[in-house]
Amino acid sequence: MADPKDKLLLDAAYEWEKNSPNRVYMTQPLGDGKVVDYTWAETMNEARRMAAHLRSLDLPEHSHIALISKNCAHFVMCDLAIWMAGHATIALYPTLNADTVKYILDHSDSRLVFIGKLDDWDDLKLGIPDSLPKIALPLAPKTDFDKWDDIIARNEPITDSPSPPGEQLALMCYTSGSTGRPKGVMHSFASASIPAQGFGRELEITTDDRILSYLPLAHVMERATVECASFYTGTHIYFADSLNTFLQDLHRARPTLFISVPRLWLKFQLGVFQKFPEKKLDRLLKIPLIGHIVRKKIVEGLGLGDVRIAGSGSAPLPADLIEWYDRLGLHIIEGYGMSEDFAYSHMSTPQKRKPGYVGVAWSDVQTRVSDGGEIQLKSPGDMVGYYKAPEMTAECYTEDGFFKTGDRGEYSPEGLLRITGRTKELFKTSKGKYVAPVPIENLLNCNSNIELSCVSGSGRPACYAVLQLAEELHAKIDDQSVRDEITAQLEALLKEVNTQVEGYEQMQFLAVAIDTWDITNDFLTPTLKIKRNVVEEAYAPHLDEWYASGQKVIWQA
């Protein structure tokens, strides 16, 4: 009997095409409330026609083909077509600047690029060489490129069902570049397929489930848990139209599975506080009958009333935030994974979860914590390696084959993993003590006034933190009374957090940044994590003055 792990991504898609051709697989919004459904038969027909076109181009065997697009149905069709034609996909974040786009297209040796749904085409296109062949997807900006619809209209679908071997390269995920240039993480059909099957199996995902895809598919978490997993589970994928229509998109999808990142879970909470002030909500939730009604109203209002599995990943979720959602009856499970293991490492389950922990290792993942505190693992999702960087690849593995994650962590007696920071993020104060910033940032980020924080203090007598206030406060801080109130609350927070950390980890002050941290100005990665080096460099000129001021809360001038 064949091992079920032998059923690779394309094999799984062929089965749906054969056995459930008329089942709706994807729902794509077209704007103005209009949508189009794609069945498995329609999805595979378009992919097969594009595969025929790609074959006709006589590209070198196993070529790399780039794809730059926001999430949409044709992103998935592109993957299928590229794989059927015998090539590998290089997906780029749609929020990258032109310089990074140019670097990745060159570094990856891409032979052709698909251009899809994009917001900032005028900037991004400057990074795409004129000499590189281009194909425009149906929702792409207006260009004179060859169009997907025209190509599939003039090509008959391929009639064979190629199944590349497990060791063949399927895709490359370029890391989000929180430090230095992005690295090309290579994944084979096997290293992408086995984790995809695992997600569906362990979480008991079925064809009855619905999911909204809005986190970037170029990122490994969404690619693995949404797109690739759907080839095995048959989950109905809905796509978000835009940031402005996100709530309508959620209500349309009525997802049973909802995966997000900490920053968005926090935004949802702050949105609730806009309608239900925090103290009033706390009182209401304690009243048995009224509390039940309020919980239902809030969760339904978020469009999450049908959610049976709520997940979070990409960065640590503050324990207080998890507990707050628990009170609403929305039990968030956290996961831990990397581009290098196809997001397949650890996951909480409804039975095994604890605020502050990212779950237990998957049954087929081996893990350990080194003597130096680093998490090391062997996963069936382990990468083939970094593209064009064999020495860097070798350095990432121990002599006995464990991947060195660069993350520090510890296990509870129940086997739950807690992330305590990055080995490379440790900094030493002038007192000679090493500080891990992430646990301190997690304590700060529990406060509803704060959206993001960056703790630092290398070479200084004490730590400090730069804060990005919650978006809802930005328009109010010119009001001195509001600023005074926030200052008082932050002074209390500083005192509280300093009692929860070691003496050498205590912060001298909190600095409130007036600058906006976002992807476009390079303060955040495409997955909304802070670029620590960028934040530190931006405020370095102020540090002498801030330390000398003696103030506990400092507002950026």
Topology of this structure?
Elements (H helix, E strand, L loop, with lengths): L8 H11 L4 E8 L2 E6 H17 L7 E5 L4 H12 L3 E5 L5 H10 L2 E6 L5 H4 L9 E3 L9 E2 H7 L14 E6 L9 E5 H14 L7 E4 L6 H14 L2 E4 L6 H8 L3 E4 L1 H14 L2 H8 L2 H14 L7 E4 L6 H9 L4 E5 L9 E2 L12 E2 L4 E4 L4 E5 L6 E2 L3 H6 L7 E9 L5 E6 L4 E2 L5 E2 L1 H9 L4 E7 L6 E7 L10 H19 L8 E7 L18 H8 L3 H7 L3 E3 L2
Description:
There is one protein chain. The chain has three domains: 4-190, 3-Layer(aba) Sandwich (Rossmann fold), CATH 3.40.50.980; 257-305 and 307-423, ANL, N-terminal domain (Rossmann fold), CATH 3.40.50.12780; 426-555, ANL, C-terminal domain (GMP Synthetase, Chain A, domain 3). The protein contains 18 helices and 27 strands.
Counted by DSSP, the helix tally is 18
> How are the strands of the largest sheet arranged?
7-6-5-3-4-8-9-19
Unreliable runs, pLDDT <50, ≥5 residues? none
Give the radius of gyration: 24 Å
* Structural class by SSE content: alpha/beta
- Please give the share of residues in helix: 25-40%
Biggest sheet character: 8 strands, mixed
Number of domains: 3
Roughly how many Å apart are the termini?
69 Å
CATH topology label of the largest domain: Rossmann fold
Sheet-strand content, in percent, reads: 15-25%
